[in-house]
Amino acid sequence: MTHNEAFAVVAKPGDNLVDLSTPRPIIDEDRLAANIARIQSYMDAHHLNFRPHIKTHKIPALARAQAAAGAKGINCQKITEAEVFASAGFEDILITFNILGTEKLARLAALHERISALKVVADSAVTVDGLAAHFAARKPLTVLVECDTGGGRCGVQTPAEAAALAERIAKVPSLVFGGLLTYPKPGGAADVQRFATETLALLRSVGIDCPVVSNGGTPSLFDAHLVTAATEHRAGTYIYNDRSMVRAGHCTEDDCAMHVLATVVSRPTADRAVIDAGSKALTSDLLGFSDFGTIAGYPQAVITGLSEEHGVIDLSRCTGKRPEIGEKIRIIPNHTCVVSNLFDTMVFHRNGVVTRVEEVAARGLVW
Amino acid sequence: MTHNEAFAVVAKPGDNLVDLSTPRPIIDEDRLAANIARIQSYMDAHHLNFRPHIKTHKIPALARAQAAAGAKGINCQKITEAEVFASAGFEDILITFNILGTEKLARLAALHERISALKVVADSAVTVDGLAAHFAARKPLTVLVECDTGGGRCGVQTPAEAAALAERIAKVPSLVFGGLLTYPKPGGAADVQRFATETLALLRSVGIDCPVVSNGGTPSLFDAHLVTAATEHRAGTYIYNDRSMVRAGHCTEDDCAMHVLATVVSRPTADRAVIDAGSKALTSDLLGFSDFGTIAGYPQAVITGLSEEHGVIDLSRCTGKRPEIGEKIRIIPNHTCVVSNLFDTMVFHRNGVVTRVEEVAARGLVW
């Protein structure tokens, strides 16, 4: 790690962005603060608890800013991410992943001893039974039932299955049923409301209290108030925003706090530029796009292909100026969360001047 | 970095693969050794110098194994990668990237003082002039001219441009013209041969010696001998191989040394499995495929989608057994190089028993 640590000094406060070596993701402090404030205001206005997902930034200082604005707890995806945030002082951590296997369950149990409000999810009896065997009645673990309301990933498929799994959890002395949770499809508010309402009725009929209904996602975040059954909302991407969130209508390009700085390293032909940002900087996430980001100031330029260290840009539709060799450009990436995962440090700026450099403390933690 | 360092102990020699926590890429020692030997034998048989590209493994111990087999020098893509390998004792390092900008040129000059045979490429007068200003006649830097022979990325477009840039390099006391280099399109042997032959004739006509013609790539590696003008070949992916190399006809699935171990964490429906390997483990590189890897033992299962921590598998075409919750599966990734870049450590095994764990020393180095 010694070599990588040397790169923690990629910039220092007061540096000008134009002097940074590329490729380098940068975060606009004012847009960041505005994104945090705007979404927390919306949640406050609709009396929804807000639980930010740290996957987008992976930086404790940003989670503290979200908490200071009014967020209640955080959402992690993996045990190892939760360990990083527990070490940074967070007590209310929800891990939205089915945790299986002896080693992981043992680590989860150790984490549970360290913090006051750890919660996980389950969508099967196998997961519930594994959890049941690794926790104790003196400090039971809170488990929410994950529901597939149309997202097509994990989750029980019907309210009847959800209620049955809740009953299974509620019967185990070492576990506490913590509620329902879903990661819906974009625009799926009505499906979430219907699934939650039906499940809540089933739970009432068997006398099981459901303290939390946790909804999630940034793309349709401003529909969160339509799900009146929900008590909390989880979202991550909103803090930086990206090209896919602009397309989803969640924000505008001016709300995108992250850009990836890159340098034009070759202009082999009049219509082709090659930059030093490839899939190791932008990732190959397309998310339905056919190209790899929006270039500020060059709306007609198209990033048509990425190899690991090169991005190839088609300039043939550019009617005005074209970027020259050595020129630095700014790219709004398709997907911001995955860019965070590629860099050990993140550079923040205000009006082009570096304000701070944060370690991406939970980078690369996959289990 | 403290937290990530804890994960260096992901496994130890003698551990059984079935006990490893997932997701986790693993390398088969016997396939690795066979891949190194097979390609070096081919190069030896055709009297081609072989310069492995370290981008695939990013591990000095593997580059030493390649050198022990007969490789001459290594290929890096970025200065920071070259620094890691220089620190590991490598002296003959070719960086196949246009290096621009004061900070990078200063670091390149510092690296040049440390090793005996640093080489870089250039495809424009801007790059050549930048290099010229940062090196000295007492220890000139060797610069190869990068040629676009159909690959469509960097490189001068014609033999005339190549010869003109070679002349520009040859005139500068602080630089030495080192030869021609190309990263061709797959199946592009005839184009490389034609471009090189024409350029060599032009160089002869102006009295410039061309000591090296460097060809590259794994997909069409076994065509390397058709390019009789070439003196060396560069390749990276061959050492691990991957699904895209199987499709290209370079190898079979039995030559793929890397698998990604993953665990089924959810079976929401009869036709859907969800695994704990998403884009943070497999990457979203499609390379022309419409799905995200081949699952050993489940040829009819299709990894249809990835989010960061989840892979969604369509089982609807499976006529036999279907993977169950908790089951560990092995995936041949679409692209092996990008998987290496996501993990701090790489686990090696023989017949399912861990042999060693290597630090991926040059992981995440993007400039």
TrEMBL record, chains A, B:
Keyword annotations from UniProtKB, A to Z: Lyase
Superkingdom of the organism of origin: Bacteria
SUPFAM superfamilies in the cross-refs: PLP-binding barrel
GO function terms (MF aspect): D-serine ammonia-lyase activity
Annotated GO biological process: D-serine catabolic process
SMART domains the record matches: D-ser_dehydrat (SM01119)
The D-serine dehydratase-like domain, residue ranges: 257-350
InterPro entries assigned: Ala_racemase_N (IPR001608), D-amino_acid_metab_enzyme (IPR051466), D-ser_dehydrat-like_dom (IPR026956), D-ser_dehydrat-like_sf (IPR042208), PLP-binding_barrel (IPR029066)
Family, as annotated: Belongs to the DSD1 family.
Protein name (database record): Alanine racemase
Provenance organism: Rhizobium tubonense
